[in-house]
Amino acid sequence: MSNYEEWQSQEFSHLMTDKGDKLCHIKGNELCHITESDVCCVVHYYIVDEKGYLINNGVRQTRLGQISPKLVQATEALRIEWLKKNDDVNDYEQRQEERRERYLEKAEKARKEREAVHSQARDMSSIIPLGQPILVGHHSERRHRRTLDKIDNLYRKAFVECENKAKHYERKAEAVGNGGISGNDPDVIWKLTLELQRLIANQELMKVCNKVIKKYHHTDERKKALMEVGLKEDLADKLLKDDRFGGIGYAHFTLSNNSATIRRISGRIDEIKKLKELSVEIKEEFECFTFQIDKEDNRVKFIFPNDKRPDEKIKQLLKNKAFKWSPTRKSFVRQATANGILAGKYLKLDIIKYLDSIKS
Question: What is the pLDDT along the chain (360 residues), one digit of tens a residue?
């Protein structure tokens, strides 16, 4: 299968006009509309102009309606990123999976510890006969009280400390990969562009739905028109019911909030692209440390010989510039943002200056 055919088989290459007709994106502002019948399959090719009209042989075709130029532009950006994308699981996703597994292992370890402590508490409880009171003044009083305290502490450890620890690591395992799209992910631009296209498509659909509701006055007509532009029946019914503000359709704040999210994600994509252009893979080896800008890991690193930690003065310099020790990377790291790269370069000079001063 060619890239062209594979692209057109992707769900996100299919766009919808304001009249509910599906078009397939080819490249740039080129789209096609496929009409299938029992006899043959007819493909019509269109160019989208700046107002969203479909042009065929220099003539506007209004039968299919209009399509948002912003949505077409976002889909072209998505196609470009899709062509670059590798289907293999990237290193970041592998590290995320390993991290999730480590948390689950810790949770399982805490559960096993809870069972062991609980079993120990039960065994100690079985020594004391059921209902046996503390014999005040008897020689067994101190031992009895100590045993009860130990049993109490063991139960507390089992059902509070160990249980909470297990739940803590289970929550952390569940949260891995669910905190949004990370800048550390090599596929961050692809994932953000995919999200941007989805948001723009939703924005255009919400606008079309509101236009339909204003155009028609009867509920049945509105419902039919909403389903024609792509809404499912249950969603159309929900949209035509009065909301808590007494209106129908998509509220103004829903569109404005979605629009703000579109601007935020678009800005983030531009920022990451600029950072990728500016950041250059660097690995400089000095007598006592190695300075590295690792583009793949998205980290600025200070690596010391034999994975040993530096002296207290260098530790303080690293801390002042927000570099932290990473046990998995065996180095002091900071995310490779514009500020992180600049801080790393200044810190490199400070460490060299300090090392020169202690030599002399």
Answer: 567 788 888 888 999 888 888 899 999 999 998 887 777 778 889 999 998 999 988 888 888 888 999 999 999 999 998 888 766 667 777 888 888 999 999 999 999 999 999 999 988 888 877 777 777 878 778 888 888 889 899 999 999 999 999 999 999 998 887 777 877 777 888 999 999 999 999 999 999 999 988 888 888 888 888 888 888 888 888 888 877 666 788 888 999 999 999 999 999 999 888 887 776 788 888 888 999 998 878 889 999 987 677 888 999 999 999 999 998 888 999 988 888 888 999 999 999 998 888 876
E-strand ranges in 169-328 read 282-285, 290-294, 299-303, 324-326
Q: What are the structural domain ranges in the chain?
A: 3-84, 97-175, 187-277, 282-359
344 within 8 A of 292, measured Cβ to Cβ: no
The three-state secondary structure class of 30 is strand
| CB contact at 8 A, 93 and 191 | no
Instruction: Tell me the whole-structure pTM to 2 decimals.
Output: 0.71
- Please spell the DSSP secondary structure of 223-246, one letter per residue: HHHHHHTT--HHHHHHHTS--TTS
